[in-house]
Write a structure and sequence with these properties.
With 100 residues, the protein is mostly helical. The protein has a domain of 56 residues. Helices cover 76% and strands 0% of the residues. The protein is built from 2 helices and no strands. The termini are far apart.
């Protein structure tokens, strides 16, 4: 029965990666507190961080949900992609001619 070699290089690289990632995250928050800590204090800076994260998360949810707004559907016609594009181009040109 053959012995399996332990692959320690994989373990080291993943540990190094998480350490490097932790260093980048820490450097961001250290710089953030150096810049805004004088103006807002510790709790004000933490509040600012969470306010920005909250606004950003709500904006992302709003933007991604806008692509799923229900549209009026007449009926499913099972057309291929090319014919659908041609029909939409013709309809687009017809409506742009009448808007003048």
């Amino acid at each position: 029965m053959a012995r399996r070699k332990s692959n320690t290089s994989t373990v080291r690289s993943s540990t190094c990666y998480s350490t490097r990632e932790f260093a980048w995250i820490s450097s961001f928050y250290i710089r953030y507190f150096i810049i805004f800590g004088h103006f807002y204090g510790i709790f004000g800076t933490l509040g600012l961080i969470y306010l920005v994260k909250s606004l950003e998360s709500r904006w992302i949810v709003y933007v991604t949900q806008m692509s799923h707004v229900p549209m009026k559907m007449s009926r499913e016609e099972n057309r291929d992609w090319l014919s659908t594009q041609v029909i939409m181009k013709i309809l687009e040109e017809d409506t742009s001619d009448h808007t003048d």
